[in-house]
Design goal:
Oligomer: single chain
Number of helices: 2
Largest sheet: 3 strands, antiparallel
Order of helices and strands: EEHHE
Structural class: alpha+beta
Shape: elongated
Distance between the termini: 51 Å
Length: 113
């Protein structure tokens, strides 16, 4: 069985990493490395913020927000559905006519100088 690393952004929204591993232990190691990367990024931010932010109250508030942003992302290993060799590949079908009106594209943002 193959395993895929999925990141839960904010502990909730799953994001597929497309990282597939043959062994569960390899997937867990990748998750640990990802967690360490987020921890290192937070520590680097904390060092610069401590020197840059003058008021202790502002620093604490900013630190709490940054910790939540970086450290609430967690990884998990899930079985990879594409690892079953017995599953037949479905032939591609032409798309059917949409039943909803098309969504207008978002207006483009002007380039910043």
């Amino acid at each position: 069985m193959k395993w895929m690393l999925v990141v839960l952004v904010g502990g909730v929204a799953p994001v597929n990493t497309d990282l597939v591993f043959d062994k569960f232990s390899d997937c867990l190691s990748a998750e640990e490395q990802m967690r360490q990367h987020y921890s290192d990024a937070f520590e680097a931010w904390d060092r610069t913020a401590a020197a840059r932010i003058d008021r202790r109250r502002d620093y604490k508030k900013a630190r709490d927000l940054e910790a939540k942003r970086l450290l609430s992302n967690v990884g998990t290993c899930v079985p990879h559905s594409g690892s079953d060799p017995a599953a037949p590949a479905e032939p591609s079908k032409p798309p059917t006519a949409p039943s909803q009106q098309p969504v207008a594209p978002a207006p483009s943002q002007p380039a910043r100088p």
